[in-house]
Amino acid sequence: MQKLVQRAAIFFLALLCIGITPLLAQSGADTSGSAMDDMAQATMADLPVPPAPPTNVTVQDRSNDNGTGVIVRWTASADEGAAGKVLMYKVYRSLVSDAPFDQWVERGQVQINGGEYSYVDEGARDKDKSDYFPKGVDLFYRVAAVSADTFGLSASSDPVQSADEWYNTTRTTVLVFVLVFFGFTLYFINVAKTGKSLYVRPLAGIEAVDEAIGRATEMGKPILYVLGLGTASDIATIASFSVLGRVAKKVAEYQTPILVPCYDPIVLTVAEETVKTGYSDAGRPDDYKDDSVYFVTQSQFAYVAAVNGTMLRELPATNIYLGKFYAESLLLAETGAVTGSIQISGTDEIAQLPFFVVACDYTLIGEELYAASVYLNREPILMGTLKAQDYAKAFVLFSIAVGLLGRVVAPDLLHTIFNIK
Amino acid sequence: MANSKNLMRIISAAVALAFVISWIFKSMNGMEDTTWLNVRQGALVTIAAFLTLSIYSFLYGDNPFYRFAEHLFVGVSAAYWMSLGFWSTIVGNLVPRTHPAIADFFQIAYSQDIPTYLRLIMIIPVVLGILLLLRLVPKVSWISRWPLAFIIGTTAGLNLPRYLQSDFIQQINNTFITMLPAWEGFGSFFSNFSFSASGQFAMIMSNIVIFVGVVCGLVYFFFSKEHRGWFGVASRIGIWVLMITFGASFGYTVMGRISLLVGRITFLFHDWLNIL
């Protein structure tokens, strides 16, 4: 009974509170009405004055692109110099010129630099990307001069549509070089096809391949051929395939086992084909063993651990590392040196060459790797390409000499020609 | 033979015991608060320490601990990359463009905004991928050479202008340097003479080294001419320039590798043994 009375009292008190609160609030509002008006007037007087908005907002489709950029330019706010009133400019974009401000998307900020006022609004071509840049539709831009508290917003620009171009004029130099290089290549391939002897200087590393294969045969131990971490599309890996074909043919002739651990599945496929072809060319297709070319893993250091383990267990007489290598180069070459193998290496990765030079018996430096396949095969197409490369290098030397003189005569002219965006 | 096997068993048992004790000690740290969390954390740290030391045991030579760590590493990484390849390439790129039902099956969003021709284009890589897999069927394995030819040919073609631009033309552009930067005559040169890196003398020397290094380096990479006479001298200078560059690069990279070693040592002595 006592509890029932307590609950009833609490219930009525609660009702009382609920009923009284709005009344109190209303009376409070009534009593302080004049004070609120005063406050509002004072606040209006204290509101920060927005800086003068930027003017002359002009827009232009960015040229030489794939329809993913618009250049916005404007004239600075008149208040820019007034004691740092304008801190920066913000660029807004909308698909409708008279859209409410909350539908304008901020695209970027430009700091005060006292010079040219422009902003390149750019994005991605792919519709799946979050920063997709709409192509072929009207875009409108507004620029805001931003002060510490507020901002002054310009009028909307004229509409602009981004469009893609078929030809990038800034890359004309590349086109010219491609045509010149193609011309050299075709000419020298024809020269090589006529049977004219073209000289290729000896490469110590490649001349040592036959010796290394002979050593492995005498010792009855396998040859380990590592193609590196490159993909089948890397130039160094493609050059390495050529050498692998030659090595496979030799080991097939000498009946020496070969081990080719692969990092990339596509490289594995090409390497299998290359080694099989080498065995076929040697007239011993049946001697090819499926497990001589095998996939390891696509994890860099797990691959290294596996190849190093192979070196320790199989003790190959010769290790050949040709292709694209990264941080694993020294780990592989050092282990090979510890196991006493003859080591021949080659890569176009400049950062890894020092490790190969230190730990291997022979190293093909950069382009020597590409020349190696020519030196081994001496086919007219490859010989012509090598000769064309040399002429391209001669052209580079000539360009540098001209550039040296050009610095005196017309310093910026050559940079304009060779500076490609 | 039997003795060495027994010895190996004893060593393995001792190592296992040592790491179990390590696990117990690691798990006892802060046992009052979150017991199972500590037991799990202790196990992870102990296993990581065991695998680290197993890989380091390679310095002694091939041994069962290294072989265990190697095979574990290779197996786990191969499976991981295969899984990643499937989910990122096939499920990530192909499935959202095929059919809503297939996208629903893999519980990913179906891409509705893609135009039809872009959906149809996806058939090409799918067909090429299937052709590539045909190498597993001996009778028609030759068909797999077609996608291989496509991959190598296409990428070589795409790479040509890219390399020509970045490795060739841009390099030529960067070699257009003046031999006498900020030159105002001999009087100014000697009166303001300085060995500082930003001084005129250092700048002149730097530009000369760049010019001579590039020219002689290029001469070294001429393959269709014998390296004799002045050509041989320039080639010799070129290889010296390359070797000096390699030496500097070697030292720089080794310092980076040392930092990796420091990271592992810190893990062993701080996270595992708590003595640092």
Question: Could you give the topology of this structure?
Answer:
The complex is a heterodimer of chains A (421) and B (276).
Chain A: H1 2-46, E1 55-61, E2 69-75, E3 88-94, E4 105-111, E5 118-122, E6 140-146, E7 151-153, H2 172-193, H3 204-219, E8 223-228, H4 235-254, E9 258-262, H5 265-281, E10 293-295, H6 300-314, E11 318-324, H7 328-338, E12 342-347, H8 353-359, E13 362-365, H9 367-377, H10 380-409, H11 413-418
Parallel strand pairs in A: 8-9, 8-11, 9-10, 11-12, 12-13
Antiparallel strand pairs in A: 1-2, 2-5, 3-4, 3-6, 6-7
Helix pairs in contact in A: 2-10, 3-4, 4-5, 4-9, 6-7, 7-8
Chain B: H1 2-28, H2 35-56, H3 64-94, H4 100-105, H5 116-121, H6 123-133, H7 145-174, H8 186-191, H9 200-220, H10 229-272
Keywords:
heterodimer; A: about 425 residues; 13 strands; elongated; B: mainly alpha
Question: Mind explaining what this structure looks like?
Answer:
The complex is a heterodimer of chains A (421) and B (276). With 421 residues, chain A is α/β, with parallel strands linked by helices. Chain A contains eleven helices and 13 strands. Chain A has helices at 2-46, 172-193, 204-219, 235-254, 265-281, 300-314, 328-338, 353-359, 367-377, 380-409, 413-418; strands at residues 55-61, 69-75, 88-94, 105-111, 118-122, 140-146, 151-153, 223-228, 258-262, 293-295, 318-324, 342-347, 362-365. In chain A, the strands form three sheets. A six-stranded parallel sheet of chain A has the order 10-9-8-11-12-13, with helices on both faces. In chain A, α3 packs parallel to α4. The longest helix of chain A has 45 residues, at 2-46. With 276 residues, chain B is mostly helical. In chain B, α1 packs antiparallel against α2 and α9 crosses α10 (229-272). Chain B has helices at 2-28, 35-56, 64-94, 100-105, 116-121, 123-133, 145-174, 186-191, 200-220, 229-272. Chain B is 74% helix and 0% strand. Chains A and B meet through α2, α5, α6, α8 and α9 of A and α3, α7, α9 and α10 of B.
